TrEMBL record:
The lineage of its organism: Bacteria, Pseudomonadati, Pseudomonadota, Betaproteobacteria, Neisseriales. This is Redoxin domain-containing protein. Residues 21-174 form the Thioredoxin domain. It comes from the Bacteria. One of its GO terms (molecular function) is oxidoreductase activity. InterPro entries: AhpC/TSA, Thioredoxin-like_sf, Thioredoxin_domain.
Length: 175
């Protein structure tokens, strides 16, 4: 048994799948039946937790600043977000960059060039305060759709396919 530091019961020990070399920080949380996420926004430092978005459909985007497929996905995500932001829907970005300053520079650029209504929290996965239950990310761009009860409904590695948008929209409306 390994402790899962990602779930709200921090310290309570339960089974955790060691998907990542740092299993304590990125362990799959099996006691709650759903993954957890907690971290700080890279620009303003506010605490962001997946629990805050309960009863909303969340697009969780793992990415690297400057990655081609990530930039393409974010362009499409912003359009989708803009069109559906009144639908109990949220986006959270999680940077996979090795250096925090690379992600912060990207976040500053986004803040300066994107309307405030189209911005969403950006977390840095290697921040010591970051915890999540999503295991190893094998691609520079991974998108997960988290349902209103915290369950993973869709996981896409790489570029989001056209037919994924129909599925995401369906989850948004009915998930």
């Amino acid at each position: 048994m390994a402790g899962c530091y990602a779930c709200p019961s921090r310290g309570r020990r339960h089974d955790a799948r060691p998907d990542h070399p740092d299993a304590g920080r990125f362990a799959a949380c099996t006691s709650l039946g759903r993954p957890a996420l907690a971290g700080r926004d890279v620009l303003d430092g506010r605490r962001i937790e997946l629990q805050q978005y309960r009863h909303q459909t969340v697009l969780l985007v793992f990415f690297r600043a400057g990655c081609g497929s990530c930039v393409y996905n974010f362009k499409l995500l912003r359009e989708f977000y803009k069109a559906n932001r009144n639908s109990q829907f949220a986006v959270i970005g999680v940077g996979l960059d090795k250096q925090a300053e690379v992600l912060r520079d990207y976040a500053r650029l986004v803040a300066a060039t994107t309307p405030a209504a189209e911005q969403f929290p950006l977390l840095w996965r290697l921040d010591p305060a970051h915890r999540d239950g999503f295991g190893e990310m094998r691609h520079d761009s991974s998108v997960l759709v988290i349902g209103k009860e915290g369950e993973i409904l869709l996981r896409r590695e790489g570029v989001i396919r056209n037919d994924d948008w129909d599925e995401i929209w369906t989850y948004l409306r009915h998930g």
